[in-house]
Amino acid sequence: MKQQQQQQQQLESSGKWTGGLRALLGCNVKALALFRISIGFLLFLELSLRYRFLHVFYSDQGTFPTRLLIPHIDYIYRVICIHAYSGSMVYQQCLLTIQVILAFCLMVGYRTRLVSVLSWFLYLSLTLRNTWLNFILDRYFHYMLFYSMFLPTYKVWSLDAYYNNYSYYYSGTDCCKTREKTSNEDDKTIINETILSLATIAIKLQIFWIYMDAGYGKYSDPLGGWSLQAHPLPALDTYARHTLAARYLYALLTPYGLRLMTPMVVYVELLACPIALLGSYMGNRRVVLYCIGIICSLHAGIAFTVRNTVLLSSVACAAWCVFLPPTKHDLAVGLSLNNANDKDKGNHSLSFLSKAIIISMISGSFWFEVMSNECNQSMKHVWSTLLHNRWNVFVGAEEYVTWEIAPGRLVDGSVVDVWGRKDVVEWQMPGTGAPCTSTARPGRWRSFPYLAELEGEEGEALWSYLCRQWDRENGVHGGNVGRKLLRYNFFMLQADVLPNMGFSATRKRLIHSHDCTKSLATATATASALAS
Q: By the number of CB atoms within 10 A of the CB, which of 160, 216, 423, 467 ranks highest?
């Protein structure tokens, strides 16, 4: 018993992370497994939330029917975007259901490599169907799913790993007892394995670039919104107003505390990844975990203080899983078993095709951002979505807050708020002093007010949807004719951000006036033309 305790203490004392180039550029198998589980779960959640937007943004009865998309895209775009093959709700629901199932399979690690490929391709197709909705969250999923196709995220904590071990145990004529002994040793070796390949290098470089781009955008803000001398208000003072948690944070830190913290955000974004990589090279687990904790705390703060950022912040934190070092216990146990097979440890060679695809994506992104012309950047080409790799968001202080209302006249003479889906029109700031563009309609609806410049048939399809939606939700076609919407005005309201959680007087700007009776006549004529 005493001898066993001494051996255990010797193993624990020897469980040192050696660092080096493999730790710098590679990823631990448990870290990759946690990355797969996190991304799969968040993808499952995001796609499940998309069902509520299928009708408005992806069907032919919505704001952007396929007949308006197809004439403006090239042949490659048409082939890749299978979500544009049909605009029926049934077709869109079937595709989205397949994506949800694939996301669940990715999370549990079932047929992981195939599922990763299909998930990435279908998510790209979904984004191409309506690029109005291409937010930074979609860019995160795009790149994380792309690199997951080439990473061995299935080696532990997956159904693939379980079934592989199970089939190996019961196949052949070897004695089960012998297999049981070696299987345990193999498993312990795998949990300590650090994978080094072009894919691990690429995903770490991608995360490095994300924070360099975001941090430098803030650092080089011409108005100095993220500096200690920001005038009139530092950026954090303007952003920490969107939620109830933000108001408590504002009261706790005070404006002076927020001013001191503002430049810290910039340096956290610029330095967290380089220091984490340095810690990996030096084999310093504490430094790496500290950097991961700091950057995840930053994203948690964003999630709590800015509306509609919980999923974005969660995906950003999930990406950092690839930096996680092996635990001391894994290292200690692995050291006693790796002597016989150190030569093969961490080998994960990619095929020539896989390397070519990764290099093409990296080179293509560089070309698109640096050397492409305006024609290549047009939304009619798939490159504008496939290769877009910029992350400079929240680059300046928020000068004002915005929200929308849409007063509309009904047949019975009453005036309602079409945008807020309310019978009362309220011109004052919505919420508890924390207005934003998505107060009345959250999620993907955020893009709607910024499409006001659309004209012709595209503009008609966009704005007439609010007429049809109001009539459908209020039972107009079921006999409630008095609730039929005749016309509405869409206003964007603004208020300047002032010190001490203050806001200026509200000012309004008319974005669009729409006559729903003309929309009905246009829709009828279009339907007749298509039928003929």
A: 467
